[in-house]
Design a protein that fits this description.
The chain is α/β, with parallel strands linked by helices. It has 14 helices and 22 strands. The longest helix has 26 residues.
Length: 474
């Protein structure tokens, strides 16, 4: 008989929730963690810290109050790294305690050390004291997450040249910095530092920000960040990175040169599979170490599962948790949560924040799906006026044939919260009439859904008219 029903490697969102899901149903679970603290990158270097720092930047910069009172706030005098990081450290500490309590409540045994797979039923752990312990188990869940990818020609020193994890250890608030990469992480940190009054230059090899975002929404974000002072250089690549006399020098492909106090490279991420000995076991891996899994998050070795960033897209904390739960339901035949919802909301915590669910205009065009659009602007919303958020918008994409909702896109304050209204409507196959029929508190930003639907209904009436005219002409 195995010592455990399940051994989980990694204590991030996927690892924690997978372990607890199995333990909730009475399974004997051990969780292996090589870092000195629980929570994975989501808690310690990624999701929670960056979102907390976003709020800290908004607080110290007074950016929210500028629109509200028309006052030209300047950054608080003498801001230090300690001041800037204080709230992040408090939040992370509190969240870590919550994880510890959750694991303890479900009687999940924590085994500290680096795990590797000896065979499909044995995890070998090298403990911090140098001892070796073998954990025999029926099932294994790999939830080791991911780490920033380091281009080989970039001399990361964690003093002046950072990745998205090490930037949390910066030694000073810079006057100017370069962010290389216009994806989610690059845009989030570029907007955060811009809000603090840092002169940020963002270098992106493509011709736009955030390819995963609806083109209109991405263009709105670029406009607002430009107005805040963020400088963009598109269709350019960094060809050489050097540290010169206490600052960073970047050479671009076009010959342009940039000098800045610090630089942060956001060049994507790679799976944390090194040291697990997966290839020796025959587990199939993809590019940058991604573990290949089926719809049950099962690898090609039936009793070994993987979930979260280690398997790649969408690499969100929210989906990672659900993937791990689904994996454990399948492993133990629990008939509980048997699939991850096909409707996945996505939030990007830039300033302003963005959120979306369903199809974008770009996707509709690429897939040749007929669509219409309804829009509502925060500038016309009383709550938007009250809180000084007049640049946001809600965008509904729907089918002209039956008015069924296809996608929802937000930019502006509370976007990450508001998108869930659209997500529920999308998941239940609602039409835009659902928003017109609904009653929302007044004044609220949620009420924008109703007016975006009314705008969409106007577009639909015009479409119906054009259709009737075309039929009459025939």
């Amino acid at each position: 008989m195995a010592d455990y029903d399940l051994v989980v490697i990694g204590s991030g969102p996927a690892g924690e929730k997978g372990a607890v899901q199995a333990a909730y149903f009475g399974k004997r679970v051990a969780l292996v963690e090589r870092a000195p603290r629980l929570g994975g990158s989501a808690l310690n270097t990624g999701t929670i810290p960056s979102k907390t720092l976003r709020e800290t930047a908004l607080y110290f910069s007074g950016l929210r109050q500028r629109g509200l009172y028309g006052i030209d706030y300047s950054l608080k005098e003498g801001l230090t790294v300690h001041d800037f990081m204080h709230r992040e450290q408090v939040v992370v500490s509190q969240e870590r305690q919550i994880i510890e309590q959750n694991l303890a409540r479900h009687k999940v045994e924590i085994v500290w050390g680096s795990g590797s797979l000896v065979n499909p039923h044995t995890v070998r752990v090298q403990t911090p004291s140098g001892e070796t312990r073998n954990l025999n188990t029926d099932f294994i869940l790999i939830a080791t997450g991911s780490s920033p990818f380091h281009p080989p020609d970039v001399p990361f020193d964690q003093e002046l040249i950072y990745d998205s994890d090490s930037i949390l250890n910066m030694k000073f608030i810079p006057k100017c910095m370069a962010v290389v990469g216009g994806g989610v992480i690059g845009c989030e940190y570029a907007s955060l530092f811009t809000a603090l009054g840092v002169q940020v230059t963002l270098v992106e090899s493509r011709d736009r920000l955030l390819p995963v975002v609806d083109d209109e929404i991405a263009a709105h974000l670029e406009t607002q960040l430009s107005q805040m002072g963020l400088r963009f250089i598109f269709k350019e690549r960094v060809t050489k990175t050097e540290i010169r006399e206490g600052h960073v020098h970047l050479q671009l492909k076009s010959g342009t040169e940039l000098d800045c106090d610090i630089a942060m490279f956001a060049a994507g991420r790679q799976s944390n599979v090194e040291g697990l000995d997966l290839e020796a076991l025959g587990v199939i891996l993809g590019e940058r170490g991604l573990i290949r899994v089926n719809e049950h998050y099962q690898t090609n070795i039936p009793n070994i599962y993987a979930a979260g960033d280690v398997i790649g897209f969408p690499a969100l904390a929210s989906t990672s948790m659900e993937q791990a739960r689904v994996a454990m339901v399948h492993a133990f035949n629990l008939h509980y949560k048997e699939r991850v919802s096909p409707v996945l909301p996505y939030a990007i915590y830039t300033i302003p924040e963005i959120s979306m669910v369903g199809l974008s205009e770009d996707e509709c065009i690429a897939k040749q799906i007929p669509y219409l659009v309804g829009r509502a602007y925060y500038a016309n919303n009383p709550r938007g006026q009250i809180i000084g958020e007049v640049h946001g918008m809600v965008k509904l994409i729907f089918s002209p044939g039956d008015k069924k909702l296809l996608g929802v896109h937000h930019i502006g304050e509370m976007s990450a919260e508001l998108v869930h209204i659209g997500a529920h409507a999308l998941a239940s196959g609602q039409t835009i009439d659902a928003f017109i029929m609904a009653v929302y508190n007044y004044p609220t930003l949620s009420d924008s859904y109703k007016y975006a639907a009314y705008d969409g209904l106007g577009q639909w009436d015009q479409w119906q008219g054009s259709l009737a005219a075309a039929e009459k002409a025939d």
